[in-house]
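Think of the structure tokens as a kind of shorthand, similar to the way a musician reads notation: each symbol stands for something richer, in this case the local conformation of the backbone. In the example below we present two proteins back to back. Begin with the first one, reading the sequence and then the tokens, and try to describe in your own words what changes along the chain.
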Amino acid sequence: MPEYVRTVISHLHSLVTTPTTVSRRASLPLTISLLAVNQRGGAVIRAVSAGRTHDLSRTGLSFIVGSLRVGNSHIFYDLTPKLLVRIELPSGPVEMYVKPVRFDSWGGGETDSNFIVGVRIVEISRGDRARYTEFLRGRRSTLADVINSASS
């Protein structure tokens, strides 16, 4: 019984405190675009690749892709001016400029391995930030959810 009470109190505490980081695991379609600057100073899409999100947070995200190459460029080793990510949220797409910070092999064997890529968000519009943050927050737990999860 004391364990049950401690679990319920812990869950209630998590409901009333404000988390310092909001994150969510989700598998959503995304596209990665490498942008270049043309002679007039405008952005031009050089290449596009597709993947799926894995983990999303307020300051960054990770995604799964089949290759670290987008077109003829490597997203880590080739100096690209901008990396644009477009995530298809249920409420509509959001776009953000990101900086890759890590990558690793993900699942599969030697012939069908994917990669997990971690990126930091460097720029996102105010409207896209609001919808992205709302998605991260997701459904809020209720007191009934806390009691039901503690008793199971």
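Once you have a description of the first chain, move to the second and do the same.
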Amino acid sequence: MLPGFDFGMDPDILCCRLAYVDFDGMEAVLIARSEYVDKVLDSVFEEMIFSIFQEAMCRIANWCED
């Protein structure tokens, strides 16, 4: 987690950037090269590779809304 001013935000604005990685990069590359080589990567690919990340972001968003 890094403060927003590291990315050009006004230091008086309370914000941060959250970096999160929880997937196998080699698996993602292999899938992208084989099954999706001539296609735009779609939600099927995202679900296969980033499903844990998507769940985490939904939980964080719900927590922020509460």
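Compare your description with these statements about the second chain. The helical segments are 25-34, 43-65.
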